[in-house]
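Step 1: inspect the first sequence and its tokens.
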Amino acid sequence: RCQGNSAGTKSILRLCARFINHASMSHRAQMAHGRFFQYLSTTPVGVELPFIGLVTVQGLVTAGKIAATAAPVFLTFTLKAWGSEHGGGGDFKQCIQACIA
């Protein structure tokens, strides 16, 4: 949220952009503000975790898409394996209970 640049969002980045080259600032202040805006718009923001690295919203969305794509494949494979192991019998509820146990 702090760095969002979508329309209608309240963020530091959008507020900072609103004051680029503002007439009430001195030339020196405008230059410093421009450098701050450049830093703010190019620095990735997130939580850094050991062994994982920087966790960002975009990274979480990507991981969610991968999980949503892989889950049906995993379930299909699990159900087929369960069916072949039990002679084609069994149902989904038994499969899930066995996987969780």
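Step 2: inspect the second sequence and its tokens, then contrast the two.
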Amino acid sequence: LIHIVEGSALESIADSQSVIKCRPKRFSSVQSAIDWAMKRKIIKNRSQAAITFPGQMRQLGSECFEWRTDLEMTFPFWKGWFQGLSANFLSVPVTGKLLLVGG
């Protein structure tokens, strides 16, 4: 199970970085950021986005919002977060391991 997660994560890095590079840096409102993400099918549930997006945005002026975190600055670290995940998990010295992930 971990191997699949590690492998899938590593394979999707380039696509994820591409999406982040193409997203606008600023929006006129949080709602316009949600509309942009809905239109591009980055998110599928508007009501969930209404809960999560405000925390991801920072207001710069009365009609100017930007992403709170510059994810492009974290690109150099992405592979390191996932490489070796399976081996590290399997090397934990316990007799039984169970990892459940819900989706």
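Step 3: confirm your contrast with the notes below.
The chain has a mean pLDDT of 87. Residues 2-22 form the longest helix (21 residues).
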